[in-house]
Amino acid sequence: MNTLSALQRHLKKRRCLVTGAGGFIGTALCARLRAFGAEVHAYARSASEDGSIGACDVADLQAVQSVFRHVRPQLVFHLASKVSGARSVDLVLPTLQNNLIGTVHVLLTALEHDAPKVVCMGSLQEPDQHLPPVPNCPYAAAKFASSAYARMFADVLALPVIIARPFMVYGAGQLDLTKLVPNVVTQILRGREVAMSSGAQSFDWIYIDDVVDALLAAAEAPAAIGKTIDIGWGALVSVRDVATGLATRLGNVDALRFGALPDRRLEPTRHADVGAATRLIDWKPSVSLDEGLDRAVSWYRERFGAGPAKVC
């Protein structure tokens, strides 16, 4: 595998542009890049109050071009995205603008500015050759098209693009309460019941630290250019088992109300191809689900305690 020292050497003082830097994965990635000595230029749709993140809406081509002129990046991590698995027609235009057009803007601008390597984020939701190629929601459709453009830029226009496709990411720092782990933990810490679906759906769960490791490994792997790299454990675990594992650690399994919500239809059920990730980027996951849940619960306890959670 890529060693820690090797990645540090490659990334030290390297100018790295990160879009979507205010999100769960973006925050963790920026922290690791800074720890490795990289020159990190972090951007999101809105600037942060402390100035660590600049404002750039990737749906605005001129804004993207301005950032590239200013940063002159040697490496780009394009994480900016509007994420929602909802099946609402109201999401068609927002996901088109933010996920597809935004990605095309980044790829076009990279091609015009010395063609730095670009790591784009794919999605578990997007269909591939092993499933009927019909996206199950507007977000999945936009991601599916974005990945197609990324492959075209790599194969036809010679831009070094890699598509990193994380599966079900969880862990310390995740504050989106629409996601299973923070929802279950914060609700139980508040002393509330947790309304759940049947919990029968299974996913490939991957801890945030492993995802960051994989993104950095992908960025340094020539064999990954033009490829889609799955980031997961390679095994399926049900929502019920994960929720029960969290509730057990918090001492309140009775808080879970399975069947209170309908199951979401047409959810993709597949696991990551870890063997391909090992071959292409010399990476494999290291944080087991048990260890990851331990870490996550510990982080939420420390941050929120047993009182009301201060979640933004």
Please write out the topology.
Layout: H1 4-11, E1 15-19, H2 24-35, E2 39-44, E3 54-55, H3 61-71, E4 75-78, H4 92-112, E5 117-121, H5 138-155, E6 161-166, E7 168-170, H6 180-189, E8 194-195, E9 202-203, E10 205-207, H7 208-219, E11 228-231, E12 237-238, H8 239-249, E13 256-257, H9 274-281, H10 289-304
Parallel strand pairs: 1-2, 1-4, 2-3, 4-5, 5-6, 6-11, 7-10, 8-13
Antiparallel strand pairs: 9-12
Helix pairs in contact: 2-7, 3-4, 4-5, 6-8, 6-10, 8-10
Oligomer classification: single chain
Estimate the strand proportion: 5-15%
Count of helical segments? 10
Structural class: alpha/beta
Determine the mean pLDDT: 89
SSE run? HEHEEHEHEHEEHEEEHEEHEHH
Poorly predicted runs: 307-312
Strand order of the largest sheet: 3-2-1-4-5-6-11
At the third CATH level, what is the topology name of one domain? Rossmann fold
Q: Would you state the CATH class of one domain? A: Alpha Beta
> What proportion of the residues is helical, as a percent range?
40-55%
Rounded to an integer in angstroms, the radius of gyration calculated over CA atoms is 19 Å
What is the CATH architecture descriptor of one domain?
Answer: 3-Layer(aba) Sandwich
CATH superfamily of one domain: NAD(P)-binding Rossmann-like Domain
Q: Please report the total strand number as a whole number.
A: 13
The major β-sheet equals:
7 strands, parallel
The backbone outline, from C-alpha atoms, is: globular
